[in-house]
Structure formats: structure tokens, C-alpha cells
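Handoff note, outgoing to incoming analyst
You'll be picking up this chain. Sequence as last confirmed:
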Amino acid sequence: MQRLIFSLFATAAFGLSPVAAVETAPMPSPAPIGAMVETSLATAGRQIRQFAFDGDPASYFGSEKNPGKDDHFTLVFDAPVDVRSVTVSTGRAGGMDALDAGTLEVSADGKSFESAAKFADGKAKTDFKGRKVRAVRVRPTEDLAHPLAIDEIIIESTPRVAAFRYPIEFVLDVADAPEMKTWAEKTARICERQYPMICEELKSDGFKPLTVIRMALKSDYNGVAEAGGGRIRGSVKFFKAHPEDIGAMVHETVHCVQFYRSRGNPGWLVEGVADYIRFFKYEPGKIGRLTPERAKYDGSYRVSAAFLGFVTEKYDKETVRKLNAVMREGKYKETVWKDITGKSLVELGQEWRASLAK
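Most recent structure output, in case you need it:
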């Protein structure tokens, strides 16, 4: 270091030939920080909570009822960030339900809040110089005569707080087992957290994922869980006995994202894709051991998931996404395997079984 400093000094002081500048690679940007919504307000219809922080000015969160001064809408970051500014716009198209009697609050720890700006004409903004913030909160300062509508929250910070790219809200029904409400809320939040990953893994041109999924726990359902049409039904009996099996609900969330219209898709592959997302993306390493002599690519669920994992790793990282796209379009044919890998489904199955025996 001393020689480098002297060399630069000598160049300037003694007219020596300038030293060529050393190019350095730019520092990578820090990974964005995730966030979640906590609020005392129920959602009106499909105007879900995450619409308030999705980067889309055409969407908004709307409360079901008129909020009071004890209500709040809070965006909590996964970790504190250095905030430069926070801007909140409220109201619906035409200026309806804009918030004037309200305050924008911030918190360094996500627990203790202080007022940072007042709302005027439906907007509030505060500027900081890198202040550490863990959460921002919108709170009415009096009982309102209209619902709360939050158009968009904009946060400028380092690291960046990632907006909800795939907004989703789980609506719960625990009428059959109110004692399971805490478990159901925890599970719903986990599924909401995994939703962006699932949507990315199964994205295809022109497809728009659901923004509302209804999850119900039913005492008269004797299976584990099932999904269809944006609804998930789980067994009270099963989840009382196996509360740790949240992956089963993640599996059903995958079915909601698959959203296949055609009945011509092979069931083993439909379930295999759902378990592939579960065991290779949500909880990798938990798929368990398979018996080579009994393993068949069309064994469904975790067996087919293991087969998909093998093909994806060896041949094409986009295998599951490509299979999902053709099934979503109702155009699945067995020849798609050869299109993707250059080998038939039977050949791939034999190769996979051979790999299990090693």
C-alpha cells in the first residue's frame, strides 16, 4: 500500500509517466430485503393488503370497514434498512377515501413507533439520511368516516426493500376448529412468503397468478389437503396430529398456481410438480430415501418429484417450468420429454432408476 501511494505521489510531483488506472469490479448490490404486512384491518373484497406495496399504481389496499384511531397498517421489513425516504399515497381513483387525519410512523425495531409525518391531501412523506428503519406504519389519528385505501408505499433505502411482485392474500376459515386459528395464520403467512418463489418456478407467458386464495380447515374432510379453483381444504384431524407438516399446505398452494384447465394432464406429473416445488425448493433435503427396485417415474408425489429433480439437474434446469407451461395450455404430450432432453420418458425413467442404485 505504501509503494502504491508513493508511486501516485511521484507521478504528480516529478512529472513521471502516469500509472495506468487499475480497473476494479463494481461492488455487487446488496440483496433486497423482504417484507410482510401486519394490520388490524380486514380486507374489502379483493383489495388485498399486499397491493399497498406492489409497485403498481393501479392497485390499492382497501379496508372492509371504516378504521378507528386504534387501527393500523404496518409494513415490517425482514431486517432494518438505511432509509432515505418513505412516501405513502392514499385514496382511490378520483380522490375518494384519501387519508387526511392520519400519521406516518417509523420504527427501528418493529415494535416502538414514532410519528415521522402527517397526512395532507392523502399523502405523507418523510426524508431521512440513512436512518435505520425496520417498519413503517400508517395510522389514523381519529375514527374515519370512510375505509382506509392505501394506493402505494414507496421506500428508498439500502438495501432495497423488495415490493410484492406476486401479491397474494390467504383468507382463512377456521370455523370448524377455532382452536387452530394461530396455527392456520402461521401456515397462511408461510404460504404467502413462498408464493413468489412458486410463481417464479411456474411462470409462463401470459399467465397471471391468483391474488386471493381461500384456505379452510374442515372437520368432515378425511384426507390431508386438497386444492382447486383457488381454494384449499385441509383436514382438522390430520393437522392437529401433524402440525409440523406445513409443507403439505405449500404443496396445495402450488396446485393453486398450476391452475390447469385441462383434464388431460397425467395425475402423477401434476402431483410430481407440486412435490418437486415442495421438496426441492421449499424444504430441500426432506424428500427421504427411495427404494430403487420400487421407484417408478410415474409413482406420483415425492417419487415423481425425485424423478423431476434428476432430469432437471442433469438435462435442463427449466424442465419443470417447461412441463408446467404445456400442461397449463392443455398441450401436454409425452413427446415433450424428448423435446426438452433429447430422450424419451421411458429412457429417462430407466436412467433415473439406475442412478438410485449407485
